[in-house]
């Protein structure tokens, strides 16, 4: 899945996304470039808010969580590496299995745990290659699958 940044300030966010406690105010400038496309590595949704995990303009070694209203979807193909999980607390997450199977995966990744950093690096490379395939290539294969005799 690919998204394009359409805004990079808190002033562009709906009010329910603003949270001064985490420096998300109308004055906030996010580490994003308007017009730039980003690959989505995970998505989560809670309390009516959607978040994309992307490698933003300050990417070091892990994806950052950004408010979905700052983007438009430019390629809606779902990654073959994604799985879906609905947690007991109502949080919906879409990510690769390792992320979903370990409730502390993201914390370990941001804490620079070697196994999680290495795993994300490998998954990121696979998802980057997948995202760079033109949508037409996927559409041709899908058409062949749909019309193939059973």
Describe this structure in a few short sentences.
The protein has 150 residues and is α+β, with helices and mostly antiparallel strands. It contains 4 helices and 7 strands, in the order E-E-E-E-E-E-E-H-H-H-H.
Helices and strands in order:
Blueprint: E1 2-5, E2 37-46, E3 49-54, E4 64-67, E5 71-75, E6 83-86, E7 92-95, H1 97-101, H2 105-110, H3 114-132, H4 135-147
Antiparallel strand pairs: 1-2, 1-5, 2-3, 2-7, 3-4, 6-7
- How large a portion of the residues is in β-strands, by DSSP E? 15-25%
- Beta-strand segment tally: 7
What is the H/E string? EEEEEEEHHHH
User: Structural class of the helices, strands and pairings?
Assistant: alpha+beta
Number of helices: 4
Q: Main β-sheet, in a few words?
A: 7 strands, antiparallel
Helical amount: 25-40%
What does the average pLDDT come to? Answer: 91
Supply Rg. 17 Å
The shape, in one word, is globular
Distance between the first and last residues' Cα: 30 Å
Regions with little confidence, pLDDT below 50 for 5+ residues? none
Textual characterization of the structure:
With 150 residues, the chain is of the alpha+beta class. The protein has helices spanning 97-101, 105-110, 114-132, 135-147; strands spanning 2-5, 37-46, 49-54, 64-67, 71-75, 83-86, 92-95. A hairpin with a 5-residue loop joins strand 6 and strand 7. The model has no long low-confidence stretch (mean pLDDT 91).
Features:
single chain; 150 residues; alpha+beta; seven-stranded antiparallel sheet; globular
């Amino acid at each position: 899945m690919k998204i394009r940044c359409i805004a990079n300030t808190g002033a562009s966010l709906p009010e329910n996304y603003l949270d001064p406690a985490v420096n998300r105010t109308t004055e906030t400038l996010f580490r994003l470039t308007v017009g730039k496309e980003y690959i989505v590595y995970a998505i989560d949704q809670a309390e009516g808010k959607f978040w994309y995990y992307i490698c933003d303009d300050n990417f070091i070694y892990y994806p950052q969580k950004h408010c979905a209203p700052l983007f438009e979807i430019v390629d809606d193909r779902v990654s073959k590496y994604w799985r879906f999980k609905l947690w007991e607390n109502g949080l919906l997450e879409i990510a690769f299995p390792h992320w979903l199977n370990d409730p502390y995966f993201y914390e370990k990744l941001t804490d620079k745990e070697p196994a999680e950093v290495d795993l994300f690096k490998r998954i990121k490379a696979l998802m980057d290659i997948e995202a760079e395939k033109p949508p037409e290539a996927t559409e041709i294969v899908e058409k062949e699958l749909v019309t193939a005799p059973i």
